[in-house]
Amino acid sequence: MGMIKNQFTQNSVATTKANPIWTGFHKKTFKERIDHLKKLDPGLFTEPFETGGLNTSIADHMVENCIGKLSVPMGLGLNFIINGKERIIPMALEEPSVIAASSSAAKFIAKYGGFKSLSSDPIMRGQIQIINCNVEEATFTIDHKKKEIIEYANEACQNMVKRGGGVIDVKAKVLKADPSLKALDSNSSEMLIVDLFVNVCESMGANIINTIAEHTAPFIEDLVGGRAGIKILSNLATERKAMASFEIPVDDMGWKNTPGKEVAQKIMEGFVFAKNDIYRATTHNKGIMNGIDAAAIACGQDWRAIEAAAHAYTILKHGKYQPMTNYQIVAKPNGKLYFKGTLELPITVGTVGGVIQNNPIYKNSMRMMGYPTAQELGETLLCVGLANNFAALRAMAVEGIQKGHMNLHAKNIAISAGVPHNLAMDAVEFMKRRGKISKDMAKNYLTALDLYTELRSDDSKSDVLPQKLSTFFLDIGMQNLDSPIVINIALESCSQKPIHISIEEDANAKISPEDLVIKKALFGDKGYQWLQGFFVELDLIKFSTSKDKFDDDLDELTISKEPS
Q1: If you count Cβ atoms within 10 Å of the first and of the last residue's Cβ in the chain, which end, N or C, has fewer?
Q2: How far from 555 is each of 546, 558, 564, CA to CA, in Å?
Q3: Which of 241, 284, 405, 519 is catalytic?
Q4: Is residue 117 within a helix (H) or strand (E), and if so which, with residue range?
Q5: Is 510 exposed, middle or buried (0-12, 13-18, 19+ CB in 10 A)?
Q6: pLDDT at site 412
Q7: Counting runs of H as helices and runs of E as strands, what totals does the chain give?
Q8: 198 - beta bridge partners?
Q9: Can you tell me the mean pLDDT for 297-306?
């Protein structure tokens, strides 16, 4: 544990900067990343990262009718500074760009002190439904017998009481049911709900809450009469909340060549859109849960309970469905304007119990995070959600969400088309330059690569394929042909940076100044129209396959030897 605190997450040292030991981590291969983790923490058991951790014998006892396991990619959210301490955050999900977005936003926010977070005590609520009782008398009895109820309820959680937890309060409320939904054997349209409030310490608390509620229900029945109905926890843990926030000077919000004030203004405009439209608010909140759920899954938490509570809380707090985050421009006494982002949610997580012991990956996640307390874990998840939301709003406001997202999507397409992993990003650049992200375009890259490899194997002394190739691409439509003429040429790069040249029909197509110089050197002023005309002329040339016709044509072409 000491190793992790000092080298992995710096939890023992306050900081306001992203740790340089992670610089370039995203550029490493999978094996290089695993080796990097081993160097930082030689005691980290990394084999589960490759196997998925969970073995089938354990899986078979976790769910019914088990037939196997389903793997999900897992990565690390980096650059998070939370209350002055670095947190490395494991995240598991299949959607590209989420981890990259959270890490990028966290790095940006770290320059201004990082995230601030706080949380309330881990108080969960268990509920006991009492039917067919005098609700007024029952409410009075519950209020005046609170001590006895708490003592009886705590008999079901003695170990938790010894750790400083257990039932701490009891409250009753009356619900009026819709008469049309009145139960067949019920004599009243009213029912009593007894809420038990339990400090669950380091656990998530679901199982122990249900045990306490079922243990206590008969005691409540004896006190107030009536019949106990549903006995269950509530996942809307409004007494167990966390809050995360950050502040950035508006003037420093500049991003992608867009001034800070403009970035802040556009993000606020997007936020107002979400506040006033439930359709936008739903997608806004999905982006928040992208980060929270991914971190929760990687840490063995009940992400479904977290998600359900988060959405319900927006309605409870605002009276209608609203964005979970809040953004505002605040003026400080020094006269400066600051952009402030905040996220407050109920968060039910645990660092003991549940499924954490079933999978060594969950243990690794806790280890890499520096063994946080349950409250610290909840705060961390909210910071991830806030980071993802901020990153998404900024991207949509400034350049559109697809630009960054499509890079990773295109990489997946390239790999699925058969492009070697070490050339995947080069294939992405190839597709982006042509404005077509598809398997067919990735296969065009492969065609050029295969031809290059074949020719090189006959003419080269080295069998090692270059890491990156430069390419030339041409796609010309011909009126009398069913499909366009496509030319792909792959060439070995003489410099570290590959060059991708194409001849486009659109004369105004974007091209970098460097590529324009090379294009001019190769083709001069000749462009798409000239090449199309060249191929039209080629199409006019006819070849005869008849030998007799060939001989006749040859006779006609014979040059007379007689002097003219």
Answers
A1: C
A2: 14, 5, 19
A3: 405
A4: strand 116-119
A5: exposed
A6: 79
A7: 20, 13
A8: 124, 167
A9: 96
Band of residue 509 on the pLDDT scale cut at 50, 70, 90: low
According to DSSP, the residues that pair with 396 across neighbouring strands are: none
28 has catalytic annotation: no
d(CA 145, CA 470): 80
| Cβ–Cβ under 8 Å, residues 492 and 467 | no
The pLDDT of residue 392 is above 80: yes
The Cα 345–Cα 117 span in angstroms is 12
The catalytic residue among 95, 136, 143, 552 is 95
Q: pTM for the whole thing?
A: 0.77
At 187, the pLDDT band (50, 70, 90 cuts) reads low
- The full DSSP string for 128-142 is EEEESS-HHHHHHHH
Helix (H, G, I), strand (E, B) or coil at 396: helix
Owner of token pair 């339990």: 198
Range 535-544 contact pairs with CB under 8 angstroms and sequence separation of 24 or more? 535/476, 535/478, 535/485, 536/478, 539/478, 539/480
What's 7's DSSP letter? Answer: I
286 is annotated as an active-site residue: yes
Indicate if 95 belongs to the active site: yes
Q: What is the DSSP string of 244-263?
A: EEEEEEGGG--BTTB-HHHH
- Which value, in Å, is the radius of gyration of the alpha carbons in the chain? 33
Tokens of 131: 């039917």
DSSP, residue by residue, 178-237: PGGG--TT-S-SEEEEEEEEEE-TTB--HHHHHHHHHHHHHHHHHHH-SEEEEEEEES--
528 vs 360, which has greater pLDDT?
A: 360
